[in-house]
Amino acid sequence: ATFGLSLAVKGMIGAAGGLAKLIGKALGKKAKALPNTAGNNDGLGKLDYYSIVNRKGENAWDHVMTHEKPTTNPNKKMHTVFRKHPIRATNAAWKKRSMIPPANGEYVIPTIGAGTLGENAIKIVVIPNTNKLVTAYPVFIGG
Prior knowledge:
The chain has helices at residues 2-13, 17-26, 60-65, 86-95; strands at residues 106-110, 121-126, 133-139. It is α+β, with helices and mostly antiparallel strands. α1 (2-13) packs antiparallel against α2. The longest helix is centred in the N-terminal third of the chain and has 12 residues, at 2-13. It is globular, with a radius of gyration of 15 Å.
């Protein structure tokens, strides 16, 4: 219940990072500034980086940040790397999303210079018809 309440408070305060850091400290989490996205008028609002936790125990914020640099783990599959800060790039792409959400929750948003290898879009995967982020990473689109 406390965790759910903190998510609701985080959503209400938007870019007021100071209160978010206090909440994070109270929950024993590493303090992070909140994503600051205005979104469009589809009713989904800002991306929720905290509701979904993967099998490794990472929330979406932590997972997206793994795309900040190449993996150094030889046992992991190589992944794409954002050219700019992963959270800022993801938030900027989210603002440009289509008004009609894809049925599968996978947005592919053209973004010049998205990745370090010339990727030209950012794929943002959410739970369908929500703002609950699963992952985001640079991809290639087009010919």
